[in-house]
Specification:
The chain is mostly helical and about 300 residues long. It is about 60% helix and about 5% strand. It is built from 13 helices and five strands. The protein has helices at about 1-10, 15-35, 50-60, 65-85, 110-120, 125-145, 145-150, 180-195, 215-225, 235-250, 255-260, 265-290, 290-300; strands spanning about 160, 165-170, 175-180, 210, 210-215. The strands form two sheets. Strands 1-2-3 form a three-stranded antiparallel β-sheet. Helix 6 (about 125-145) packs antiparallel against helix 8 (about 180-195) and helix 6 (about 125-145) packs across helix 10.
Length: about 300
């Protein structure tokens, strides 16, 4: 039964393999807790109380609210599917409350640090690969795409005439990202170097090594190393995606446009960046406004 549900997730709901794998692990843990077989063939006997006991046991053992939330969602989806099959009349997981999680503001790299990083040459190592590595940073920062989306880009996705890149996002959704002339010139420079180093069938992967396109993990390691010179807390490709969104909103970009550029399914995912920019504005106000400065000075004098 569980194996059929996981196929349904991937083939009919078009969920990623990572999501299906995570849900599978969660539901097998539920089965083990309740003494059921791995395929949960007698799922109809599982009650709301059973699911709550399972979650409470994991909470007592220190599982994070985020993980508890995902496991609840896995159970809800599984029993919703069973209900559609006509095997149960109600979903026992629907009454289980989702764990509340505090939403952290995304980490980003300061604009001046990014400009300094992109303006300075990368020292040491292979000069050709240094050009590629800086291009990786520049595309992530200038386009706001995910590392796996960058890994998928081929020459066929780049239109030098319209100055656009076609990005293949989650669930096979594509979107178009505008590209500045300066970045297009850097892409052309790397393509010329790449074609002199490697021989690939067409269309060739843009970000690659002699073995073919770089993996998301390899891109992460390159970005992490280059961001060591910055003060960013999290030195990752996703930090550059956050930086892209924050820079646009700070410069007055309309939030729906930022949503489309990021490839977010809902505006809620993009709105977190408005909280981030508001936090920056609040800090700037508190440090710069004369009434705030005077108050601090009066407080210190009183001591």
């Amino acid at each position: 039964m569980l194996s059929e549900f996981l196929k349904y997730l991937e083939l009919e709901l078009n969920r990623s393999r990572l999501t299906a794998d995570a849900y599978g692990r969660d539901l097998r843990e539920l089965a083990a807790f309740l003494g059921k077989d791995d395929d949960i063939t007698d799922a109809s006997s599982i009650t709301t109380t059973d699911i709550r006991r399972w979650l409470a046991d994991m909470a007592r053992n220190g599982l994070s609210p985020r993980s508890l939330r995902r496991k609840t969602q896995a159970a809800r989806a599984f029993f919703r599917w069973i209900q559609k099959q006509g095997q149960i009349t109600s979903n026992p997981a629907s009454e289980v409350q989702l764990a509340k999680i505090g939403r952290k503001l995304p980490e980003f790299v300061r604009e001046q640090e990014m400009e300094d990083l992109l303006d300075q040459p990368v020292l040491g190592g292979d000069p050709a690969l240094n050009i590629r590595n800086k291009l990786i940073i520049n595309i992530l920062y200038s386009c706001g795409i995910r590392r796996d989306e960058l890994a998928k880009i081929t020459d066929a996705d780049i239109d030098f005439h319209t100055k656009e890149i076609r990005v293949h996002g989650k669930r096979d959704k594509t979107r178009i990202i505008p590209v500045a002339d300066r970045l297009l010139n850097e892409i052309k420079e790397w393509q010329t170097i790449r074609d002199g180093l490697y021989s690939f069938s067409r269309p060739a992967p843009l970000i690659c090594s002699k073995k073919g396109r770089l993996s998301g993990r390899a891109i992460y390691e390159i970005v992490h190393k280059l961001l060591l010179t910055t003060g960013a807390t999290h030195k990752s490709p996703h930090s550059l995606r956050h930086t892209f969104a924050t820079s646009l909103l700070n410069s007055g970009a309309e939030i729906n446009s930022v949503k489309e550029l990021l490839g977010h399914a809902s505006l809620q995912s993009t709105q977190i960046y408005t909280h981030l920019t508001f936090s920056d504005m609040k800090r700037a106000y508190e440090s710069a406004h004369p009434r705030c400065r005077n108050k601090d000075h009066e407080d210190n004098s009183a001591e």
